[in-house]
Amino acid sequence: MNHYDAIIIGAGAAGLTAGIYLSRAKVKTLILNEGTVGGQMVLTHEIANYPGIESISGYELARNMKLQAQKFGAVIKSNIKITSFDLKSNPKRFIVNGKDEYTSDVVIITTGGRSRTLGVPGENEFKGKGISYCATCDGDFFQDKEIIVVGGGNSALEEAVSLTKYASKVTIVHQFDHFQAFEHYVNEAKNNPKIDFIMESKIVEFIGDEKLRKVKIQNQRNGEVLEKDIDGVFIFIGYVPNTEMFEDVLELNQFKEIVVDKNMATNIEGVYAAGDSIAKRYRQVTTAVGEGTVAALSAAEYLNKFEKAEQVAEESVV
């Protein structure tokens, strides 16, 4: 009862897409997800560059993908804990919550990533008490407040603009003298009257009592430290791939990202990977969807060959 043709680890954009493709192809599919279904998508206030959809929240897009996968027959188990696994066995095995065993002939890993932290004094203390990594989740808590956004990539600038719907003022703090974001996001932020910039600087300490009250910002050029009163800080400096569990199993690069080929295949036969846990340059919902599609099609092809090989083996025994 607990054997599936395919098991997908992770239910973000890549995992749900793979689940849609496989289950629609009548492949018995199980998606195991340790967190909330949707992954990084649910942290995005607005997705306005998804082909065919003018504008949609990340939460809503994740919900639609989940329902679509389930409609085609995929089984989704979320908020679980994978306590052990064996990717090299035949079939491949996973133990969930220390007791439930699930097996499959093929595996797709789509574990995504998590928000990168600054790692400075006070950050852990004031998480959820003025420090946030999710504009969608916490933006409305800062209505008519002054906030800081840390970062210089697409997410930082895009979310800074979205936060102006709530905050009276947004200050972007970035460690370099230029941004790494697309020109559209840079111009949108620069043209917003509510947004100011502190460049070539970084936050070195968070200060407060029961909640965040102020930050210390150090200039990278002269070392001078500015102490600034603030109501909240949103940190968007990228994220770390969730690949710790695979460190001694799969081939990872120096950034701990899973190394895959053009078919999304890993170094273990029958194991594929897609989404923000793999080595790649661009991290967007659309790229994750594309990778999830390739991984699913590759996995389906592998299953067809696998079944034919088993059939030949059985016939030779007979």
UniProtKB/TrEMBL annotation:
<keyword id="KW-0521">NADP</keyword>
<keyword id="KW-0274">FAD</keyword>
<dbReference type="InterPro" id="IPR023753">
    <property type="entry name" value="FAD/NAD-binding_dom"/>
</dbReference>
<dbReference type="GO" id="GO:0004791">
    <property type="term" value="F:thioredoxin-disulfide reductase (NADPH) activity"/>
</dbReference>
<dbReference type="InterPro" id="IPR005982">
    <property type="entry name" value="Thioredox_Rdtase"/>
</dbReference>
<dbReference type="GO" id="GO:0005737">
    <property type="term" value="C:cytoplasm"/>
</dbReference>
<keyword id="KW-0560">Oxidoreductase</keyword>
<keyword id="KW-1015">Disulfide bond</keyword>
<comment type="subunit">
    <text>Homodimer.</text>
</comment>
<dbReference type="GO" id="GO:0019430">
    <property type="term" value="P:removal of superoxide radicals"/>
</dbReference>
<dbReference type="Pfam" id="PF07992">
    <property type="entry name" value="Pyr_redox_2"/>
</dbReference>
<keyword id="KW-0676">Redox-active center</keyword>
<dbReference type="InterPro" id="IPR050097">
    <property type="entry name" value="Ferredoxin-NADP_redctase_2"/>
</dbReference>
<feature type="domain" description="FAD/NAD(P)-binding">
    <location>
        <begin position="4"/>
        <end position="292"/>
    </location>
</feature>
<dbReference type="InterPro" id="IPR036188">
    <property type="entry name" value="FAD/NAD-bd_sf"/>
</dbReference>
<dbReference type="InterPro" id="IPR008255">
    <property type="entry name" value="Pyr_nucl-diS_OxRdtase_2_AS"/>
</dbReference>
<keyword id="KW-0285">Flavoprotein</keyword>
<protein>
    <recommendedName>
        <fullName>Thioredoxin reductase</fullName>
        <ecNumber>1.8.1.9</ecNumber>
    </recommendedName>
</protein>
<comment type="similarity">
    <text>Belongs to the class-II pyridine nucleotide-disulfide oxidoreductase family.</text>
</comment>
